[in-house]
Amino acid sequence: MSRVALYEIAYGRSGDKGSDSNIGVIAYSDAGFQFLRDYLTTNKVKAYFKGLEPREVVRYELPNLGALNFILKGALSGGGSLSLRIDSQGKALGQALLEMMIDIPDEILYKAIKRGEVI
What we know:
By secondary structure, this protein is of the alpha+beta class. It has one domain (2-112). It is 25% helix and 32% strand. The strands form two sheets. It has a four-stranded antiparallel β-sheet with strand order 2-3-5-4. The longest helix is centred in the N-terminal third of the chain and has 10 residues, at 30-39. The chain starts with a strand and ends in a 7-residue tail after the last helix. The model is unreliable at 83-88 (pLDDT under 50).
């Protein structure tokens, strides 16, 4: 078992729409996607972003892309024009999620890391 940052097995894209943030997590490999499908639950994402107090986290699976898409409802405190937060845009939240530390079996990690990279 290894403890690594999520970015070792996936990359992300994120944005915002009003008060909601949209975070896509795209696995580098099918093995990584299969692991994330079971591991990266809405409860884990909601707990990770508990400081933003999302009302709800919704997850969509996109198996043809090897991706999971999360909507963090209400996480941006009204959005860019209403929030008093320094950075109320959702564009940075994808990178923040990729910093999450995950526990992953070594045999899956070996198949899931970005090709050509050694940890």
